[in-house]
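protien #1 (seq + structre)
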Amino acid sequence: MISIESTTYAACIVSALLFIVALAGLSRHESAKLGNTFGIAGMTVALAATVALAIDRGISGLGLGLLAVAMLVGASTGLQRARRVEMTGMPELIAPLHSFVGLAAVLFGWNGYLHVGGRATVELDAEGMLGIHSAEVIIGAVTFTGSVVAYLKLSGKVKCSPLSLPGKNLLNLAALTAFAALTVWFVIEPQLWMLVVATVLALFLGWHLVASIGSGDMPVVVSMLNSYSGWAAATSGFLLANDLLIVTGALVGASGAYLSYTMCKAMNRRSSPSSRVDSVSLPHRATKPTTVTTARRTPTPLPNCCRMPNPSSSPPAMEWPSPRPSTASQTSPADSVKW
């Protein structure tokens, strides 16, 4: 029997296929417009399926009203900003959108822990999702603060020069080590203070990573943050058991990571998942100096007419033409005037 839930799952599969086709279309200039149309269709199907599933599961009237208001505000804001922005300002437009995705992942992770934590996190622990839960909060917090700093730098509201803290690479590695230790500890014995410390460290790491990069590399940073937002969405899909969110997040994360690698390679930059810094902090690879051999040419002497005179020598004497003898006395005025 066909139900709303089974129809929703089918719609999620169709939406995921539309997203894959959209990504393939956006890879070429000739089919970019068609790929964008497929992406719009996929998102429309996903939103309709989500609202239908929420109504089928008995969402309250207040919740449905808040959902409708959120969709209207988001759609109107997105259309207004997209109509005004130019193609050169796309990174500045996309950066705050990534911050919204990261903030949503952090809020969802905290809401899930506080909702389930009252029951001693039995559900998350039984499903083995505690590690993914911590990773979602960390990736979302890094994406949030990093996207905010990227937007501020692209809009010129903060200094464009990179921030150079002493031992900044060691700070990044120390933060990653602390994340790994807190995640393992959280899986073994989940406590609220661990989630608080992980969130604060992730917010600091996102700010420090992007602040250490100059404005010239911000398009690469925005692409990397796009990848982070995709992985945050994928982890949310695992917690929600939503296949569409997993597929969409994996597509965004993988495509953003590959695009960042391609841009770094084209701009002669180095990209690292742990510390993406500018060219000042990481030395470039030492290359062998190339020796260029040029053939020595003998200058051709100039002709005498084009040579400059020697300033030390005296100028040559000028010869004036001798005056011609006057013949006025031999001719009369009457003969010189002709009528």
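ok now protien #2
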Amino acid sequence: MRQARGVKSAVKRWGKSVKRRDVVVPIVTALIGAAAVWNKRPPCPPPKCDWEECGDFVQRALKDCADQRKPLKVAVMELMAGQLPPEDEWIPDSTRQRLENILVNVGATELQVSSRATMAFTCGPIRTKAPKDRRAEEMKCALMLGIHKTISGNLSISMTKSEVSLSVQVQDVCRSGVIDASFAHEESKPRLIELQNQIFGDLLRKWLNIDEETIRGLLAKGSKGTPEDFKRLQESFPHAHEDRTPRASEAPPGIGAPVAASSQKPEPYAWGITMAHAQETPSSEKDAILELLRQYGEALRSRTVDKCEELQVEMTERQRKSLQDYFSSANNLSVDISKVDITVKGDDALATFTRTDRFTEVPSGRDVELEVRVSTLLTKQNGRWKIRGLMKPSY
């Protein structure tokens, strides 16, 4: 009897083990097969590749991005605005230029500042119009350039109340665009500079942890003027023709643009961006561009429109009138160009610099000091560098 019960027990145990094997073995076999298929899988196709997960390069770049945070590398992006009245179209660019300049003045040991225009010149213009896709491409380019944070914003103007709403947000490129901080304020249009200072002060105070005395100095530098003063300055700048399709020889390498011939092959990345290898700007080209900017500063100080025109590829009637209006409102005009960054690609270059204008306003007699950070496209024609115009961040 005991022997029979023992046999039955053994049979039951054997049956259970068989059932377990029937379940486990197929699962293990399936997993092994899936692993083999996964290891032989083709690379993620660029149009569908999730940039957070696909490609060894992206993973290395994310790790480098997270490990190297001194100095912090920041890019000031486009300030988005809806449909604005023609008389207010200057506000987004002027606001972005002030913010970029303030961050540059924080100091290169703690902060290295780039711009959306620099990214566009380096990575190439983004052809997609979908906001989500554009933002993804911007993040990829920022990661590729070693940028840790991006600062973007939105601006709107109430037509009924004449109030300006401004918001900015800081995104962490190393953490796939996670928002680090965001600030928003609203003021009447005549108090635009005060509105900017509120937002910029929040960024410096709450995000960068800068002390109050330093913040006051940063905000005061180059903002001794009215919104109308900044408007006249903004409208006097040369503007590149954005509706003109770049020639193959002048288009910056990148998304949707041909790559100029080079002794080195451009390197394709996981998401389909093609970026030329960074090359040191020849000292001769750099010196020539610095000389052009020196001459341009002299032409501005002389308040002579024709001298400015000689240094540009072309000058529209609109800019000629705007320059004349600016010069007529600025007695004892002093123009300083400093902190110049230059990137050269063939017969095209991007010069990003700080411009400081000081003058006595006519007819009020006010002392004015305006300081902004601008990115200017240059083109070499017949062996000579000329100014093509401001590079818009939306380029």
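The first strand starts at residue 72 and ends at 81.
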